[in-house]
Amino acid sequence: MKTSKKIMRDSYFDLVREFPLVAIKTEKHHDSAVAFLHRLAVRNEASLDTGEQLYLEALTQFVEDYESRHHRIAVEHLKPLPALKYLMAENAMRTADLGRLLGSASVASQILRGTRGLSKRHMLLLAERFRVDAGLFLEADQSRSR
What we know:
Elements: H1 2-18, H2 27-41, H3 50-76, H4 80-90, H5 95-102, H6 105-113, H7 120-130, H8 142-145
């Protein structure tokens, strides 16, 4: 039992030494944090020990806190389609990725071309994926018709 606690503590603190857990205050620090998170996340989560998982959770929270304060402001004033395109760009999401999320590549293409609107289901999926309010994807004139 002592050995597993030591390994957990060692792996956690090894990561803290490599990339300290502090509040993210700049876009450059955010970019570095996201890159570091990606490095951990590409590993199979089951292969992470408890210390690594705890570190991953903490750094994820710092990134989410920064994004909710800084990135949300950037999209609130946009109409739904530009907001979607912005969020996709910020998350390195391609049309194919959007198609997988929505369940149809052709629907994703139509939405991005502006020839098809977002359904309520699409809005909820996007809100969950990007961790934003679903109302961000609702056009003012759509609110009466849907």
